[in-house]
Amino acid sequence: MKERKWISKTDGIVLGILVLFAAGFLLWRAVAAQPGMNAVVTVDGEAVLQIDLQAAVDAQSYTLENGVRLVAENHTVRFAESDCPDGICVETGALQKVGESAACVPNRTVVTVVGGEPRDVDVIAY
Description:
- This protein is an alpha+beta fold.
- The protein has a domain at about 35-115: Sandwich (mini-chromosome maintenance (MCM) complex, domain 2).
- The chain is built from two helices and seven strands, in the order αβββββαββ.
- It has a four-stranded antiparallel β-sheet. It has a three-stranded antiparallel β-sheet with strand order 3-4-5.
């Protein structure tokens, strides 16, 4: 009796193409900047800087008066340097979606991504 294959060569090619297409689409959705997306930087509760993330393609560095350095690139913003003792703000990574935020508590600095169109629903509560 001849052993039966689960997937033929043609099935594998079609499945591979579909997986690549789906992965590309998901990556595009995750990385693409939303129109009107900005990063608002506050120090001691006062907005001191607003960065247009739509225009932030090449690396742009911003140094605040309290010594915190931010870098905006590829439609994201992140803490690059801080003189705080633990450096948790620097380890937070890049912010790219509306509603994400990072804080450097010792320097009283908060970066929040605002604007843009609202994303899909994260959670539905009943």
